[in-house]
Design brief:
183 residues, alpha+beta, NADH Oxidase, 4-stranded antiparallel sheet, 7 helices, globular, binds flavin mononucleotide
Amino acid sequence: MNAITMIKQRRSVRKYKNKKVNRATMKEIVSLSRWAPSWANFQIARYTLVDDAATIEKLATDGVKGFTYNINTLKNAHGVAVLSFVKGKSGKFDPKKGDYATTKSNEWEAFDAGIACQTFCLAAHAKGVGTCIFGVIDEELISGIVGLPDEETVAALIVYGYEEGEHAEPTPRKEVDEILRFV
Ligand SMILES: Cc1cc2nc3c(=O)[nH]c(=O)nc-3n(C[C@H](O)[C@H](O)[C@H](O)COP(=O)(O)O)c2cc1C
């Protein structure tokens, strides 16, 4: 799949077939995600893949703040990636100590996680696996459910699986002249 097709055809997928994506395929997708750029190449993103029905149900009941839309998506999902990142490194020259290098201080860690997230979604799409990013989540409860190490925090959930039915309709985009300026 070429890059332009990949970018334009990726959609948020919320209806999944009753079929798990095998772990070897998911390992390949995470292996591709490693090519995401990151602050000073610190590579702080981590992927905890949940493919067990009881844990996915727990994420639905406790992890999405009771948001029905997300609960309904999780009800037909067989895979969820908990995207997390190692705290306190990105934004610094020295990951072990020192002040943040810019006025954005630690905001670069969420920036890194965002790039990792889109790289994961595009890699998944290229491998025929649909994804949906969830931002309406309870980071603390999710950390507990999947047992994240203390040095990490949850950035987002990415639900994944084989899409059921027709490929989701494209959502509208602003015109390029609304978002672009040259100086
Ligand atoms: C940071 C972020 C948070 C999001 N949170 C949710 C969410 O909680 N639930 C959901 O169903 N979709 C969520 N989405 C998906 C967006 O609604 C979706 O990307 C957007 O409408 C564009 O549609 P598309 O992904 O199909 O192009 C989120 C996307 C991003 C980037």
